[in-house]
Amino acid sequence: MSDADLAKPFPLPVAGVTLATGEFMIHLAAHFTWHLGQIDYHRRLLTGQAGAIRAVLPTELASAKPVPKA
Who's near 37: CB < 8 A, 6+ residues apart? Predict the structure, then answer.
């Protein structure tokens, strides 16, 4: 994808906001990381280790704007 494509708005609202496609892709990577963290959390439960995991929310990204109400 070109820089221009990544800068275009993602075609669907995400968590009630519009995002640049590139930032949505970053969010998507973070979301997958969240699930990997869940798997790791279960591993830590079995080993007795604990920890916290947090992903980046779509509303925390720089290009997040509220979706206009129809």
Answer: 53, 55
Mean pLDDT by 10 residues, the chain (70 residues): 96 94 95 87 80 72 90
Q: Is 10 exposed, middle or buried (0-12, 13-18, 19+ CB in 10 A)?
A: buried
Other beta carbons less than 10 A from residue 32's beta carbon: 11
Residue ranges covered by each domain of the chain: 3-63
**pLDDT at residue 38 in the model:** 86
Contacts of 26 (CB under 8 A, 6+ apart): 56, 61
How is residue 12 annotated by DSSP?
S
